[in-house]
Amino acid sequence: MARRMFWSFALAAAATVRLAVFANGVPLATAVQSSRPVPKPHRVILQPIDRAPGECAALVQFDAIAATVTLNFYDRTFRGLPWSLRVKQHRRKIKCTDNPDQIAAVANALFAELKASHTGVYTADDLNYWALESIFSRSIDDYPVAYSGIWPVRRGGTWFARYVLPGCPAQKAGVLPGDELISINGKRYRPLGLRAGATAALVVSEDGTTRRTIRLRPQFRSMQQFFLTATRASERIERVQGHAVGYVHLWAGTNPQFLAALNDALTHFQRHHVSALILDLRGGYGGAGSPYLAKLRQDPYFRHVYTVVLIDYGTRSGKELVAAIIKHDHLATLVGSHTAGAFLGASPVRLFHNKYLVEVAVGHYVPPGIGEIEGVGVQPDVAVPPCTRFCRGSDPQLTAALQLVRRYLSRLR
Hints:
The chain is of the alpha+beta class and 413 residues long.
């Protein structure tokens, strides 16, 4: 008979989770729209108190990770899966020599079968670990990490720069979205292969053939601070056909400072009498809600400003709600590709002295009048595929947005 594992659970109040759509069962959107305070979700801390003789650490860690999702996942039917059987089958893949990243990979393959957002396990070798730790922490400054501003994506065995955050070292050094990321200091590229305070040699390729070496020094800050810097640095005004056009990229909405940065940009645009606005919601994290649209809705000036909103598969969670409201209420034209469909409420669980961060979906919410977002996403009004590799500075989605703006401005003459 299989040995039963026994676990003790302690509940501790956590900081307000703006990434989550639910907080203790209350829809975040409802709390935000009604100006009610968002209740603090509870963080479950899992500690093993029993271990079979000879059981290796890798299996104990996998069991704890799997148990965290098993006990807290919002859908108690586990999407109709024979969950206990699936856990056992994946458990057989664990080797006692596996390191945390290998254990996490097996666990994430298991969780992927749920086809649910906001459910996964991350280690300190994953950028998502540091982003989620920052988002779920009590302070925007907590959990600093050495980072250059590249948000990478792996295609097969090759890394590419999916996004490059404005105002960060990589952008200033000339790394472009779509660049192939080859090596750091002569070693194969890793997303967290930089050391704080040390200048690194990053080798990239813009075409898959030629290579160039870029020297950059990472900054040591929290991921939320990086996203906030990028949001502020993205703000600009361009002259298009003799008219002022404002552009700002909202990289997250997980702290009140992001809303302040957006409103500061809109105020700046209003002061310079922009005729059109491009609001970029691509990439980054979620956390935003209806207050991010208040100025566009309520200010008479912006009701007469032609607005285009950029979305893509990196638009997720709270920013998807913003996109969905925009589409439903016809506040702007959505340009780009469909969003992630990642709209479940989540809570964090830290295991084994922060070796693992488990994010588990604990609630499901369908915004009234909007409809399902989880697993569905938001479709653009004007579909434009993104460039994901060897872009050489091109951004077809932004180009399409500017074309719409030019078409609108040409009618003002």
